[in-house]
## 1
Amino acid sequence: MSKTKLGFTKAILDDLPIPAKGKRAYYYDTKMRGLGVSITSAGTKTFIVYRWVSGKPERITIGRYPDLSIEQARGKAGEINGMIAQGKNPNDLRRAEHAEMTFGELFTDYLERHAKSHKRSWKEDANQFERYLTPWAERKLSLIRKQDIQRLHHEVGKKNGIYGANRLLALLSVVFSKAIEFGIWDNANPAQGIKKFKEQSRDRFLQSDELPHFFQALAEENNPIFRDYFLILLLTGARRSNVLQMKWEEISFDRREWRIPRTKNDAAQIITLTDEAITILKTRQEDACNQYVFPGIGKAGHLADPKKAWARILDRAGLENLRIHDLRRTMGSWQAKTGASLVIIGKSLNHKCTTTTAIYARLDLDPVRASVEKATTAMLLAAGVKSEEDVLNLHSKKMTGPLDSTVTR
């Protein structure tokens, strides 16, 4: 390549001749090795560095003139020359950057190669991405830095709460860990080492003075599906996702059991059904329209998370700061209040703990059933929907009385 060398100044670059149509001209600076400017027939001027690297010529684009000043171009050319002196090819690095995966591509890979096959909650991960991470979808992985994740964690915590922010941080850490495992990312995990918000364990459950108001609000609920759903949640202590997906084939009225094939911790669970729960389920079975105990009109075929109905019931009951999940905690809390051991409570709620798994495996369901029935009786007595006489007659005949207006239609 013939080289026309000039001492670059603004006046000189502004007056350089425009080449003929379809042609391109090159001029090189006398003050910075390799620095040049290319001019197209349209008059576009671009700073470049032209050097031999590893035995072959490389033209490295720096930026447009006059967007980039001559001094800025010389500075960038100096950096490039320094990289070449270290044996690096700037164009190879740029080609690698161009081929680098975006965060959106990584997240799709994470869902397909890991989450969908190993996590029942993979849809929650996808929702997290849609809610918080879509602005990063087109960003190259190397452009997501630790401070970016720290900033996002802080913003989400401030706007949407610390629990959601911590779940998001955990998700990002897992995604980058999987990128390292898959061989996609060979740098440090940018989500590691970021301090989570301090979480306070939630201990909310229905107290004795709240139960009458809660049961009265349930009795006034016009939609029996919502009413029965919340009652089954309370009377079984099961997770809401499992109750939403409860199928008739999983229920044995003879054994008074509900067998969940797969729970959150990937283990099957057998839940004992009290007389009150059996009454609700048998009444629901009379009008069964599909395989689900709580049918819905959506694609899934079962009831979706009934947040509006829950808000309606809380408003009628005059209760605050009570979540649907707190019904599960209510059963466990009342089991504790009525003398159940932590092992029994863990078995009935299917809490997975490595130090007590062996003990759980040896437990018979009879003490679990007795504990659940005892806690249920105590709750219903406190709510005023069950009398002492009902308690005495519970095991000798089917209970009738005030509870019927709540647990049956």
Note: Residues 352 and 358 are 11 Å apart (CA to CA).
## 2
Amino acid sequence: MFFTNRYDQLDKDNQDLCIQNNELKQTIRNLESKLQTKPDTSQSHLFLGKLLHTNSHNIRLYVSRCRTLFPNLTPWDFNRPIDRDHQTKLTQIILDKGYLEGSFDLIECRDKLAIVNGQHRYQALLDIMKSNPQFDMEIYCNVHPVPSFEDSLATEVFLSTNNIKNVELKDNPQEKLQNVCLRLMKQFPDGIKSNKSGRANLHRLDLKELYNVLQVNESFTDDSLTEQMMYDKLIQINHKLSLKPYTYFFKRRSQRSDKLYQGACDCGFYLGLKKGGSLGMILMNA
């Protein structure tokens, strides 16, 4: 009798557990169904902050904090040059109002983030952050995934997120110029670098710096020029510079000048010995 009662009790307990298990399975199915129809918008990103929305094109909207996000961003190499007067005005507006209007557009590739729209606001906020360690601000960011920062899709994002009033024709990233700059960087890996600051030291040129010089140079913005013609022209200019004497680049000998000149000779890249306006004049008159 004892064993019979014990068996009956175990059988009943087993049936109860089966019912509970089925109920749990149904609960899980219901939750999975809800998650599929209503994505979890409470997800957060270490740098970007809280995810608010993801649209049908997989563009994600985040609410971020500039002090957390900005150190982990880089300006896009093929963005337009910074207008310092505009940046200064934005800095003052932010300080006066205490808030910032508009959102930022970022491109994302392999967990790296670059700004394609909002770089003047970025620089303005960055200046305030540098002068005031306590300053922080909530901002909104649209994140556009791209195969690479050099891909044509990145250029499309730039053009579509910068309106006509803000971007003139000369500011539009030109695929030919981008490709020329990237080919030169591949040809002279120790002569052209891509830096977050947009500047390179010693004998080198920064990729963004080179692109900006070419972008405003009439001898390289002629639509009749092919990519290969531009590339060959720059290679030829670099070769001509390699035949110039030390005194063409420097007025007098110094330890730093010697180091610059030796670096250019070692890597075969001489364009970096001339910066800014001087480089522009060489390219214009070549």
Note: The mean pLDDT is 82.
